Amino acid sequence: MFTGIVTAIGTIRRLTPIGAGQDMRVAIGTPPGWLQGVALGASICCSGCCLTVVAQEGDLFEVEISAESLSRTTLGGWREGMRINLERSLRMGDEMGGHVVSGHVDGVAEVLSVTPENGSHRWRFRLPPGLARFVAEKGSITVDGVSLTVNEVEGESFGVNLIPHTTEATALGTLAPGARVNIEIDMLARYVARLRQFEGQSGA
Question: Repeats (Lumazine-binding): which ranges (predicted)?
Answer without folding.
Answer: 1-99, 100-196
